[in-house]
Amino acid sequence: MIKKFLDLGKQPIANRFLSSSEQFKDEYFFNLEVGFDEDTKLVSLLQQPNKEQMFNNEYPYRSSGSETMRKHFQMIAKDIKEHFDPKLVLEIGSNDGVFLKNFEKIGYRHKAISVEPCSNFAKETRKLGFQTYSEFWNDQTAENILASHGQPDVIYSSNCACHVSDVDDFLRCAKGIITDSGVIIIEDPSMEFVLQDNAYSQFYDEHAHIFSIMSLKNILEKNGLQIFKVETLPYIHGGSKRIFAQKKEKGTQLISLSVYDELARERRLGLDHFSTYEQFAERVEKNKNKIIELLTRYKNENKKIIAYGATSKSTTEFNYCNIESELIDYIVDTTSEKIGKFSPGKHIPIISYEKGWNDSIDVSYLSAWNYKCEIMRKEKEYLLRGGKFILPMGNVEVI
Ligand code: DWN
Fold it and tell me: What is the pLDDT of residues 207-248, one digit of tens each?
């Protein structure tokens, strides 16, 4: 039974940035509510917009938009080569090819193919020389791949499984296509970090689920799969977990201690109890009040406040906390697809970093809070001259 614990109000499509004010009146909104499944222990949105509304040829988010993520994908590509020496890697959800690109560098170009439903990005990876299926991941796509390339022995999927409403189907299709000793590697934001950091803004339309290891174990087992290793990625997207899975009956990898450790820790933290999520919802409400109070105080002191990074997470934060352009003058971002547009729901203008980042700024709301380390390194001068960053997650901090 799924029990609701969080209501984040009316929310728009998190990555649909609006080109002009004429589009404001027709903007689509849905109720962003989150629930806990007592049986599988999975945390999911109670309703998700149609996938075509979210993932299409205008999808603006580039996975290559930060140094942190570029390095992250470089490292995992190298690890996959070293540990599994695959004959064929299939990436599900390849975005702009930031992971695939590395296969060229390590001499594996013809050993990597991908699936990416956003055709603007699929076009880019094809240009790089990687066969890309511009489709949603399903039985038909798996069949087409099988017919043209044979069975992959590694499937890698970063920040994609949690986007799929029918995660059973996602896993069933993956199991159906890999070799008997094949490995499925999945990484997504982790429920443990969401609870630890009050990171409620990991919930938005695209994130149909936020996984715990215990929920993934249950769903994988239901689909004949088994986790054999877990890695913690504290600096990736606000804290992620990477799981390695294999066919339960045919897999050849030994089960690492990391699996038992993770499950035991999650039980200690109460991730299997509804009350843990109810308490989280209370902290979220407090976070909202605190952030509004802080921004209002700075505004009353005539400080110039902007936001740093037009993120999906800030769509949730701004709409839930009702943060509009009266409080935040504009958002700076480096992504060409977002510059010159307006943020979803609250319609705050997005300006290029070159134009918008200057000495007149007193306070920056760090909407790209998951890149805190990278941004603090880059913006030392701003901090030295007295500029402040607001960290909206956790207990709301000012740096
Ligand atoms: O699952 C998803 C995650 C992994 O990525 C997707 N559904 C969408 C996306 O979520 P997000 O939009 O919250 O992701 P980011 O990576 O937190 O977005 C960062 C934004 O900030 C980008 O638009 C790039 C921008 N940025 C910037 O302008 N200057 C980022 C950095 C590091 C910078 O220095």
Answer: 999 999 999 999 999 999 999 999 999 999 999 999 999 999
CA of 368 relative to ligand 1 center, distance in Å: 6
> Is the distance from CB of 219 to CB of 243 less than 8 angstroms?
no
CB 163 within 8 A of CB 249: no
Strand partners for 227: 245
pLDDT level of residue 109 (50, 70, 90 thresholds): low
pLDDT tens string 252-307:
999 999 999 999 999 999 999 999 999 999 999 999 999 999 999 999 999 999 99
Q: Is 48 in the pocket of ligand 1 (CB under 6 A)?
A: no
* Angle in degrees, 0-180, between the axes of helices 213-222 and 167-177, rounded to the nearest 10: 60
Q: Is the distance from the beta carbon of residue 205 to the nearest atom of ligand 1 less than 6 Å?
A: no
Three-state SS string across 106-170, please? CCCHHHEEEECCCHHHHHHHHHCCCCEECCCCCHHHHHHHHHHHCCCCEEEEECCHHHCCCHHHH
**How close is the Cα of 264 to the center of ligand 1, in Å?**
32
Residue in the structure block whose two tokens are 């029990």: 3
Q: At what angle do helices 274-300 and 312-321 cross, to 10 degrees?
A: 80
Alpha-carbon torsion, ordered 382, 311, 19, 11, to 10 deg: -130
Q: Measured between alpha carbons, how far is 383 from 338 in angstroms, rounded to an integer?
A: 26
